[in-house]
Amino acid sequence: xxxxxxxxxxxxxxxxxxxxxxxxxxxxxxxxxxxxxxxxxxxxxxxxxxxxxxxxxxxxxxxxxxxxxxxxxxxxxxxxxxxxxxxxxxxxxxxxxxxxxxxxxxxxxxxxxxxxxxxxxxxxxxxxxxxxxxxxxxxxxxxxxxxxxxxxxxxxxxxxxxxxxxxxxxxxxxxxxxxxxxxxxxxxxxxxxxxxxxxxxxxxxxxxxxxxxxxxxxxxxxxxxxxxxxxxxxxxxxxxxxxxxxxxxxxxxxxxxxxxxxx
Length: 263
Ligand code: KIV
Prior knowledge:
The protein is an alpha/beta fold.
């Protein structure tokens, strides 16, 4: 995947596959997979660091995750999230954050929302950095949204999201994540835009889909949102492996002779 492939994927109706990734080991597995894009999402704050929201993660921490992912998957298209408020403190602070993530190895940056930052997005794009937009449920605004809830439920919200999606395209975004919006709205936006839309909880009609890797591997505990499909029962399999290891250690079955150094 290359930035130049996105328009042709949209034209040819070839769906784009994106997953989140935050570390070297998973990146090295994803490097061998048919996944198109690795998103170093600020969901790392929750998935990797155990916070309740994405707000606490810093640019430096994001850059560390990007470096690890780039080392694991040198050939993949890597998108890095600009963390909470890092692009709302003036153009030069925003550009420093963009610089850190790009120098860490990202191919593009993603930021949430568009209102009040149209000219910033244009400036980032004109500086040679591809930008992915993100509308609908924008987790960095969770305090203002009053929780992680579906957006675009009433006609005013739907109209706002339609015009914000167009504003993302006009500002130069090469693609747009639509998170937790009704399927019909995501379909309408996808149809109306020239750029690729990537959905999460946005139905079947977007140009691509994204999931958090740990969710799709079934590693996450607790109640998952309805849009999550675990493609394996990773948590159970990891626990089974750990039970087998503990049992073999306790019963003297590990290490076996072939796993020891003689002499
Ligand atoms: O940080 C993240 O994981 C994301 C996806 C939900 C799109 O932004």
